[in-house]
Amino acid sequence: MNTYDWLHNLPISDMDSACKVIEVSFSQGTRKDFFRNPTLQPFEKGDIIAVEGISGFDVGQVSLTGEIVRLQMKKRNIKEDNPEMKKVLRIATVRDIEIWKQNKAREPEAVIRSRAIARQLRLDMKISQVEMQADGRKATFFYIADGRVDFRELIKVYASEFRVKVEMRQIGARQEAGKVGGIGSCGRELCCSTWLTDFSSVNTTAARYQNLSINQTKLSGQCGRLKCCLNYELDTYLDALQHFPDHCDVLQVAKGNAFLIKKDIFKNLMWYTLPDSNKQYPLSIERVQKIKALNQQGIRPEELEPVELVSSKPKDEEPEFVELVGQISLRSLDKAADKKRRQKQNPNQARQQGGQQQKQQGQQQGGNRGQQQQGGNLNPQQRQQGPNPQRQQGGQQKQQGGQSGNNQQRPNNPNRNRNPQGGQRPNKPKN
Questions:
Q1: At 155, which CATH number?
Q2: CA–CA separation, 301 vs 245, rounded Å?
Q3: Number of domains in the chain
Q4: How far, in whole angstroms, is CA 257 from its chain's centroid?
Q5: φ, ψ for residue 56 (rounded to 5)?
Q6: Whether residues 235 and 279 fall in one domain
Q7: Residues 34, 74: Cα–Cα separation, whole Å
Q8: 125-151: per-residue pLDDT in tens?
Q9: Which of 140, 277, 382, 390 could form a disulfide with 131 if both were Cys (CB 3.0 to 4.6 A apart)?
Q10: What is the number of other CB atoms lying within 10 angstroms of the CB of residue 45?
Q11: What is the largest CA-CA distance in the chain?
Q12: φ, ψ for residue 114, nearest 5 deg
């Protein structure tokens, strides 16, 4: 159970009048208790401290400090100067925390073993939780029972089995649900495990006043009892029902007796049914009082004269039918299908075409870059005249050199004689 400290930033003018009590939570908030801080050590929320226990010490977590502790003590009728209130010892050391964790690890096994022992002794009770003290000298057994249980023999067995000082504490089903925790049907965390401390009795009359169907599965919570939230709006319903007339469960009309079904406190209507039909008739409070006065005089009206209910919600207009055939183009889908078909038929040809296209694009980009470089090095006059004359002269010289080389005759090879007429070579003379 978490409590918001809205007095945390309140400045303290007089240290003597400051609250010398802090609130400490144990077992992840399932149990809280108040401890006196005589030395006024500056504790903060969340600090792990060592406090006095039963013939030893216990380790808990600070949950509240300051002036808001006084409000919590007033709520629980605990006096600040109570001499039986235990004290805070110190900030928990590393050794204290190690011993605390070792004894907390014994709790699940202790629950299983304690339930088996109670079953062997044939006791009509259920062990809900076992809480070990930090030093391991005391154990508190929380149990649920419908009536009184004689557990004198059980305490002796527990003391010899676990070698601790045993304390038995009876709780109800709602307290057990608060210790276990969970999510309710509303989607939020259970009220009994977050903020609710006082459990008031809930009966089915609260559901009848609110016009709820008496369904045990829907009205009961995780503890198996009726939901605590049935009492939240009960006072509002009771105040609203005071304006409705009493003793109007049956109205006499010409068609028969009309029986009351429900009362609508939001619209101030009372719903009745007639024996010859299953239809429900909403009547205003004034009309019901008038019919009741006529019945007391021995007069039966002809009709109930129900109220015509007009819904304020706007009607959802159905959209008109629209012909969409021909308005959606499927060419994009056809193009993709044709492309896939071509790739399956000629995969190699498609790859070659793709490679050639990339080469052509690369050549075009290279030529464009060369032209840009040449154009960038020339002045406007040279660009108008044309290409660079020096490059043209160099190209002409290269062409002339190539032609002169081709025109030069090769040296005559005496061993190589060809027939000028294109005939066959003459045979070599034999030795």
A1: 3.30.300.20
A2: 19
A3: 4
A4: 53
A5: 175, -150
A6: no
A7: 12
A8: 999 999 999 999 999 999 999 888 888
A9: 140
A10: 15
A11: 169
A12: -65, -35
Side by side, which strands form the sheet with 138-144?
126-132, 138-144, 165-170
Q: How far apart are CA 276 and CA 378, in angstroms?
A: 110
Instruction: Please tell me whether residue 120 adopts helix, strand or coil conformation.
Output: helix
Distance set, CA 109 to CA 20, 123, 170, 422 (Å): 38, 20, 20, 118
Q: Is residue 319 part of a domain?
A: no
β pairing state of 138-144 and 165-170: parallel
CA–CA separation, 142 and 283 (whole Å): 54
Instruction: Quote the CA–CA distance of 376 and 382 in Å, as a whole number.
Output: 11
Same domain, 236 and 278: no
DSSP state of 56: E
pLDDT in tens, 159-213: 999 999 999 999 988 888 888 888 998 999 999 888 887 888 898 999 988 888 8
d(CA 238, CA 234): 6
Buried b (16+ CB within 10 A) or exposed e, 99-135: bbeebeebeeebbebbbebbeeeebebebbbbbbbbb
Tokens read off for 266: 């939001």
Tokens of 90: 């110190």
For 275, the domain range is 244-296
